[in-house]
Design brief:
Helix content is 0%, strand content 54%. It contains no helices and 11 strands. The chain has strands at 2-7, 10-13, 18-26, 33-39, 46-52, 58-60, 68-73, 78-83, 92-99, 110-113, 117-122. Strands 2, 4, 5, 6, 9, 10 and 11 form a 7-stranded mixed beta sheet that branches. The protein is globular and about 40 Å long. 31% of the residues are buried.
């Protein structure tokens, strides 16, 4: 199985920045898509952004477009989420996940999940 471990969460003031990391280990399918999701209390898990492992093609949800950037370092088996201009509404648990699909943004199409890292944005 593919294993994913998130890190980098914490407390930050509104307007600040934070960079999350997702370390990937174990077997990885060539061309898999790695995505970032978040889940706030009482809300559904929300797709934020994804990147294809082989080609680096990215996509973003409207809620984070222009503020968040996904990137990956294949040699280090790590995916990053750079978060800028953070808002209190961004407070949530953040997860990285892997899908055999190259394009899906659906939670149900992601087979492997990290344990999550908490991000709290204060006003």
């Amino acid at each position: 199985q593919v294993q994913l471990v998130e890190s980098g969460g914490g407390l930050v003031q509104a307007g600040g920045s934070l960079r999350l990391s997702c370390a990937v280990s174990g077997r990885t399918f060539s061309g898999n898509r790695i995505g970032w999701f978040r889940q706030a209390p009482g809300k559904e898990r929300e797709f934020l952004t994804g990147i294809t492992w082989s080609g680096g093609i990215t996509s973003y949800a409207d809620s984070v477009k222009g503020r968040f950037t996904i990137s990956r370092d294949n040699a280090k088996n790590t995916v990053y989420l750079q978060m800028n201009s953070l808002k209190p509404q961004d407070t949530a648990d953040y997860y990285c996940a892997a899908s055999r699909s190259l394009i899906s943004s659906s939670v149900t199409d992601y087979d492997y999940w990290g344990q999550g890292t908490q991000v709290t944005v204060s006003s």
